[in-house]
Protein: NAD-dependent succinate-semialdehyde dehydrogenase
Organism: Gordonia westfalica
Amino acid sequence: MTDPALLSAVPTGIWIGGAAREASNGGRFDVVNPATGDVLATVADATVADATVALTAAVAVQPSWAVTPPRERAEILRRAWEIIRERADDFADLITLEMGKPLAESHGEVAYGGEFLRWFAEEAVRIGGRLTAAPSGNGRILVTREPVGPTLAVTPWNFPLAMGTRKIGPALAAGCTIIVKPAEDTPLTMLLLAQVFADAGLPDGVLSVVPTRSAPAVVGALMTDRRLRKVSFTGSTAVGKKLIAQSAEQVLRTSMELGGNAPFIVFDDADIGAAVEGAVAAKMRNGGQACTAANRILVDNRIRDEFTTALCARIDAITVGPGHDDGVSLGPLINARQRDAVSTLVDEAVAAGARVYTGGAAVDRPGFFYQPTLLDEVPAGSSILDEEIFGPVAVITGFDTETEAIEAANGTDHGLAAYFYTRDLDRASRVAAAIEAGMVGVNRGMISDPAAPFGGVKHSGLGSEGGSEGIDEYLNIKYIALTS
Ligand code: NAD
């Protein structure tokens, strides 16, 4: 049950210099509860001028933040993690309110998202370099790592907390200042996080949050400002490609976490019960609105009927409803546009001859709900096999050989997550090596871990977030030539 005081306690201004302020033109925009369609709050709508003020604040404190002792930076990050834990109910409540996922999943995101701050608090004190003798005998080679500088983070709506902390954690640990441009559907969680960082003692100006409805203009203006040094983006491949092109002008460091089209392969020697549970987790979690979501379920034809029947029964047991209601395991989609996009993909596949095992339509109730759906026999070439579905729709395709399964898995421009189920150890190592993806789950349907590098290959992105690799994205390498 939402604490009535929660929404009034969340800052709804643009967060700059440690305080919330109105937009320079006084503009505000609505944040909508996707479970009802009702307006939850209005938020200040940052203009290019406001974003430029945020960058000026970041630039002003960048030198002092860069030389703040790593231990102090670590303690602020750790304190922020502790406050998130203390306020876990508020964060979970807010995530469910503005994004819609079931409350238990929101709690999962709070734990996962918060953990990036603890993880990078621990990494902040381990930024190293090296000193070696030049092989020629001509002096010594000193290699150091320095913060990249003022960073812009652009985040999506599907994990309103975690997609922010995955960037803020390593940026602050490395000594970078950061401006976050949250998704317009879900700015409240990031604004509450800004308040948490202020409470944790983060110096003013180090973190800004600029909600805006004018993302292309605001992001474009910051990226062409020569004072910005890096952009870290999580979102669709289409927007990511635009930002990569824009980043050329100022030769920005870029981290790109883009779309996926994850294959989920079930071999004939798999534990079918485990594979069904894994498929439900990989497909239905977050309403299917995850970049790591299983987009294409590839099943050996010898077990296809058995697997499909079991998966269908499991999907039929899913309870759809508002994320705050007891027993609900599938919430709404984020907005009407997303629901309609999912509807269109399914309708086209069905019109082309796909078989609907269950679901197949929007739910007739307020909010933006879509039925959990299972399709099979989708004709090759259907958009639903190539595009990121981003909804609770499982699509099964059959295969006859391991080679065919791997070819199908790799037959996409994307390469973010991939999953497969087998009990054969040789096959496991063979297939894991052959799959073109940044992350591979072997006999598991959930793989994200703050201690592991998260990232994709091909059109799924550039760079890694999380793990000991994540902080490198925010550090420049400097070589210092010493005479002795
Ligand atoms: P999106 O690309 O539409 O938007 C992402 C962010 O970019 C938002 O903050 C948005 O306001 C901003 N934006 C949109 N157009 C812009 C432009 N022209 N210039 C600058 N900024 C712009 O994506 P979305 O719908 O919010 O999120 C879903 C997508 O994110 C999916 O494709 C999903 O796979 C991807 N995603 C990837 C990861 C990952 O780590 N690889 C994680 C989560 C989501």
Summary: Residues 103-124 form the longest helix (22 residues). Residues 10 and 192 are 5 Å apart (CA to CA). The first strand starts at residue 14 and ends at 16. DSSP finds 15 helices and 22 strands in the chain.
